[in-house]
Design a protein that fits this description.
It is a single chain. The chain has a single domain, classed as 3-Layer(aba) Sandwich (Rossmann fold). The protein has 6 helices and 11 strands. It has 262 residues and is of the alpha/beta class. The protein has a 9-stranded mixed sheet. A two-stranded antiparallel sheet has the order 2-3. Strand 8 and strand 9 form a beta hairpin.
């Protein structure tokens, strides 16, 4: 079984500035890390490969230095990965990002299962996985809590759908998005890290894709445009309410109502 995990390099700090002109994050000089939610999807993929047999590959979109998270995935047990890197991909919204990743996946070959993390900490849209599946024309399940079995070319999963927990089967090949805390990710192997070479990842650019229309990528391919983006204002204002339980609840109610929250 061939499993592909979509991963992303995200800022390692919450103190990230926003370019007032382009509306995108200023990533230069900011430490980066593997998106925390992707660690759960990686662990799920590696566990499935160990149980049912197979190999795990990874794919990411970003600048050349995004190769570092491919290396981290290899240290956890992945075979290797692919970096989609080109200036034409810059500034992509969810739609253009998903389309670019789907084009990259097609260049990588066929996979039985594609796993995404629930969301990324720098975007939090939780939409890329589902949109990638649409571009690949394969079924998708989001908010997966567990993979219960793989039998007869079907994946049996437990998923969270708002107020309900459901069990379902889905035909392979398919794409799933794993919930956070679905498992406990393993630590990268220090021994493997010491033996890493430069051939852990291959690079694909716009020129490698079958679709050579630049209007489908980056800012040009984005269905949404950012008019203004800004960091939230920090507010240290606080209120302390004294009294017994009845007095506190009444004062809290009046405070909430005065701020027109109810």
């Amino acid at each position: 079984m061939k499993i592909l995990v979509c991963i992303k390099q995200v800022p390692g700090s919450s103190n990230v500035e926003v370019d007032p002109v382009t509306g995108v994050l200023k990533r230069d000089g900011i430490s980066s890390k593997l998106n925390p939610y992707d660690l759960y999807s990686l662990e799920l993929a590696l566990s499935l490969a160990e149980k049912y047999g197979g190999e795990v590959e990874t794919i990411t979109m970003g600048p050349p230095q995004a190769k570092s998270i491919i290396d981290e995935a290899v240290c956890m047990g992945a075979k290797g990965g692919t970096v989609l890197s080109d200036r034409k991909f810059a500034g992509a919204d969810v739609l253009a990002t998903a389309y670019t990743i789907s084009q990259g996946i097609k260049k990588c070959g066929e996979f039985d299962l594609i796993i995404c993390g629930k969301q990324t900490t720098d975007g939090d849209t939780a939409q890329v996985g589902a949109e990638v599946s649409e571009f690949l024309n394969i079924p998708n399940v989001s908010n997966v809590l567990s993979v219960d079995a793989i039998e007869d070319k079907k994946l049996f999963v437990t998923a969270s759908l708002d107020e309900k927990i459901v069990k379902m089967s889905i035909n392979l090949p398919c794409l799933i998005s794993a919930e956070g805390d679905i498992n406990t990710p393993r630590l990268p192997s220090y021994k493997v890290k010491q033996t890493l070479t430069g051939d852990t990842a291959r690079f694909f650019s716009f020129a490698d894709f079958d679709d050579q229309n630049p209007d489908n990528y980056g800012l040009s391919g984005s269905a949404t445009q950012v008019e203004r983006i800004f960091p939230p204002e920090k507010n240290s204002e606080k209120a302390v309410i004294d009294g017994d339980a009845e007095e506190q609840s009444e004062a809290l109610f009046e405070l909430i109502r005065s701020k027109k929250l109810i």
